[in-house]
Amino acid sequence: xxxxxxxxxxxxxxxxxxxxxxxxxxxxxxxxxxxxxxxxxxxxxxxxxxxxxxxxxxxxxxxxxxxxxxxxxxxxxxxxxxxxxxxxxxxxxxxxxxxxxxxxxxxxxxxxxxxxxxxxxxxxxxxxxxxxxxxxxxxxxxxxxxxxxxxxxxxxxxxxxxxxxxxxxxxxxxxxxxxxxxxxxxxxxxxxxxxxxxxxxxxxxxxxxxxxxxxxxxxxxxxxxxxxxxxxxxxxxxxxxxxxxxxxxxxxxxxxxxxxxxxxxxxxxxxxxxxxxxxxxxxxxxxxxxxxxxxxxxxxxxxxxxxxxxxxxxxxxxxxxxxxxxxxxxxxxxxxxxxxxxxxxxxxxxxxxxxxxxxxxxxxxxxxxxxxxxxxxxxxxxxxxxxxxxxxxxxxxxxxxxxxxxxxxxxxxxxxxxxxxxxxxxxxxxxxxxxxxxxxxxxxxxxxxxxxxxxxxxxxxxxxxxxxxxxxxxxxxxxxxxxxxxxxxxxxxxxxxxxxxxxxxxxxxxxxxxxxxxxxxxxxxxxxxxxxxxxxxxxxxxxxxxxxxxxxxxxxxxxxxxxxxxxxxxxxxxxxxxxxxxxxxxxxxxxxxxxxxxxxxxxxxxxxxxxxxxxxxxxxxxxxxxxxxxxxxxxxxxxxxxxxxxxxxxxxxxxxxxxxxxxxxxxxxxxxxxxxxxxxxxxxxxxxxxxxxxxxxxxxxxxxxx
Length: 706
Known about the structure:
- The protein has 21 helices and 24 strands.
- The model is unreliable at 1-7 and 192-196 (pLDDT under 50).
- The strands form 4 sheets. A 9-stranded mixed sheet has the order 18-19-17-20-21-16-22-23-24, sandwiched between helices.
- It has 706 residues and is an alpha+beta fold.
- Strand 7 and strand 8 (314-319) form a beta hairpin.
- Helix 1 (12-34) packs antiparallel against helix 2 and helix 3 runs parallel beside helix 6 (142-157).
- Helices cover 39% and strands 22% of the residues.
């Protein structure tokens, strides 16, 4: 960049020159009109000695960078003392107005200095500091405060049209206007090696590796993230600095910024460790800034920066825009050349100690999803981003996803506020078993219906064990076949079980009668199942309705009979038996956890054990299991632990959350109680993601009406 005339920078020698010339001129005026360089008359002293010289000293030397609250205290105190010397001879009302102004500045500045000092500056002290800082540094400037006292002196003690008054006003006016007119900057431009196009607005306090910088700022600076600043390092390299946040430290304004890319065309005349304002037309564009941060496409927006406490499986990032983050949000950052996706699962507040002050902010916790590939969906990445790495989201919630749902995949839903689908090869992994968990009304049954339809469309036969009496009606368009035993047989089974429980001397006769009846019932069930399994392709859905809604022996007996008949057929027809998906609604009724469901007798526990073993062995013979339950505490753990795909909607009980913690991990489990209706966390072989993922099932008006 070519060297040009400076419009902002003022060299130190220029300030000293202006100070000397102004002091000589002021003292000459004093000597010419009063006969003394330092007049003894209080009237003359107020205007010439105590005011005019202080305007010159304060503006040219003491506050040439910016006014601090401590400077305002001194200025207000000196102004008040000067006014006290003329109290008896000055116009009373005007004197009180000016004295009240000095007193107000003194009190506000003292409050600011006291509240921003010490180790603890939080709470009330922080509030007082924030409120009093701007008034103290603006109203307490030497140029402003002493000019008010100077004009008061002229009004009170001098005739408006006298030569002395005219000379004083001309001197004061000329000295005041040379700064906004840029005269000192023009003079400085004649000094070689000191000229720069930029105005210095801060000095480096410290560097937080790798790329955070702390600056002592000019109080008038607007430390906003839509403005870039130029910074020269100790080695002479110049970099762009992106503002993050600012805070008060003692009586100074401290700004924290992020070091971006080096300037391609450096400025001339910049000092080492100094921060400079840059004209807007010379700044990089917003697209350039995103490119510096690693977002070359320009579609994403910066949302925060990685902070301490991050690990491979999850990152913590400080929010730049606190109102723009939400649970389940998709974010990403770069690790090397790879784009790694994360999903927000939690958030918290944090407070950082900055020497004597504290900085409060929000931390978002995001779990790793990994690299988004076209073939596999989300593939786990084996490392974590560096500290202060930029984290991005997309303002519109849309991502140009390279992932396309494979033709035979089941689409569970999508990541909230994005067009990235969450799918999986359910029909290829159905025999590894799936569990859908969640409270009533969360959406688990509706998802179960969709999985049933998807399985049927892929040629898998589906048998539903239904205790809710809604499957037959909701799936009526698929012409389900009723595989249930009659009400009379179910009642007779219940009666015979009751006879066994109440029979005397071991109930031998009753048990023989029950055994004979069970064999007859088994034969009836076997015939129904074989007919269903050998039926044509348009008869692929069977429903077993159990009228028992409690966890009775009859329900367990019937379930065990169906499952054992199905397993025996599959064993004896290996290679010929069709693929079968068993759907168990209200699984706690037919696959209960004995210790939590009051099954104290040996026979009931034995039945539950048989059902569990049959379900687990079915995997070898292409028999899969889809379990739907409200609470894990009431479902057999032998079955749940063998489900290789877990989908959890909202759940609140500690037992369920404790079980799911072993599946999803602590971070995702904390998000489960906060899930909205139709939101779920999914993980396992049936989902194309190496990590648990929060998804949203699309709302369907037709289902809501049904």
